[in-house]
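Dear colleague,

Thank you for sharing your sequence with our group. We've completed the structure prediction you requested, and as agreed, I am returning the results in plain text so they can be pasted directly into your records. Please verify that the sequence below matches your submission; if there's any discrepancy, let me know and we will rerun it promptly.
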Amino acid sequence: MGADDTRGFVSLDELIRPRPIAEVVAEPDACGCAPEGADQASGCCAAPADQGPVPVETHVKKRYDALAVQGTSTLCCSPTSVYTSEELAEIPDWVLELSSGCGSPMNAIGLRPGQTVVDFGCGAGLDLLIAARRVGETGRVIGVDASMQMVRTARRAAKEMGLTNIDVRVGDIRRPPLREASVDVVMSNCVLGMFPDKKEVLHAVAAVLRPGGVAVISDVVYSDDGPPPADVAAGESAGAEDFARCVVGMTESQYRDLVLGAGFGSVDMRSDGLVPYRDGAQVTSAMIFAYRDDSPAQPCC
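Please find the predicted structure tokens below.
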């Protein structure tokens, strides 16, 4: 390099010269945002004043992330209210405390050894554990949940019980991490009621079922003959917290039309009557049997 070749060098004056304010870039804080000035630092992570309401699915996910960290659920009903003692045998107490639902899909369907089953919105994994014991080592049980905290909890439960035929995945059940026509049974316990657009979820359910498959869904449904129960929210009156609490329902005919409109061949319903929730609410629950094709000569359940 020649004496006059200064490429790659910065003069001392350049190094010590104060940088213009405009050139200073604030480092992002723990929330991932960079305040432009000291007066903004304290409120950096707060939502802008003109930001719209939080989407329902975001609110629900945060709610269940928090429950998983807390280690106990204050939502929906306790498993002991809707499951039999035989179903809950050997299930860890901490799984029961964290599980939320409005019915027992496992009490409504007869699984067979070797089947592939998926739980949409598996939560802490209660239904996964029961299903895994029924399909046996030749079967496979897959759980899908949007909450990473719940997924970790369900994986821990499967490991603790020594069930190696369970696979728990993080994912949005509207776009599940599954191949089309890859499962025999889809089950979902009081999860579709957390989505304002149930039809989108039902389309995803139909897509992953093999020919002859069935979806067994527990959800909040009320009679066509009257108004919803006092604790059930319906229509535009439902808010984000109503969806998180699983108290948003629709009539039997509305639900039936949604299922058939999503591509199912037939649908049956069974009323489970009033179900008591942990927070004191009471909802009317139903078990929905959505058949990918026409109803079999002998129903699955």
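Summary note from our side: The chain has a mean pLDDT of 82.

Kind regards,
the structure core
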